[in-house]
Amino acid sequence: MTHHFIYSSQFGFLNGATLNLLILKIVLLYFDSSQIYLLQKFLETFIEWDWKFPVKLEELTQKSQSWKEETEINFRKNQYLSKYNNYSNEERIRLEKHTNPIMVVLTLGYPEQNCSYNVNNSTRKIILKEFENGIDLLNNAKNTNDGNENLKQAWKTWLNGSKFLEKYKHFLFILCIDKFHSKEGENYCRFIESRIRLELIFTIEEDQKQIDYTHATSKENCLPKIFLEKYR
């Protein structure tokens, strides 16, 4: 998922715990299947999943320790709606899309938690779009009638991903530099990075007529060479 730029909880994407649980869910359902088939079912299952319902592996007996939708909604409302008091009705409706549980993947054991809490309405669109690209690639490979080797090559191509700069036409470069290389400067830059996920929603995505979603990444190797030479 790293090569698809959808692996970073900080920016609202998948993390290790979420991926492990999603994969385990598929393995338990199709435990005697080939790797290629498991990959196919992974993508198909979670593209078609009704995300009004959580992904979970077992029911907990201690209900007091279970994840509660109402509690998460309250946390998300506090995160997305409490910062500003002067929302227009249109703006409030837009932000409320992010307050509902967007992608709930529940951990095993107690207390039960949603390990994909940081996923928002925008980043889920990106995640599912990448999954759909994988299924399209698989279907195209199947239609060529070139056998199993062609399927393997198709999956290899998808798993390797594509260049970030080839995904979009417009980019915003956010740079935080401390010329003294101090600990305080490093901590401040980390704080800025931790706020990007929310601030993109509060600001850049405000104009929904022109911007459907934003896609953040901190991968330096996807930057143009001129940026790397100038700012490293």
From TrEMBL:
Gene Ontology terms, MF aspect: ATP binding; poly(A) RNA polymerase activity; RNA binding
Swiss-Prot/TrEMBL keywords: ATP-binding, Membrane, mRNA processing, Nucleotide-binding, Nucleus, Transferase, Transmembrane, Transmembrane helix
Segments passing through the bilayer: 12-31
One GO CC term on file: nucleus
This enzyme's EC code(s): 2.7.7.19
Catalytic class of the enzyme: transferase
Name of this chain's protein: polynucleotide adenylyltransferase
Species this chain originates from: Meloidogyne incognita (Southern root-knot nematode worm)
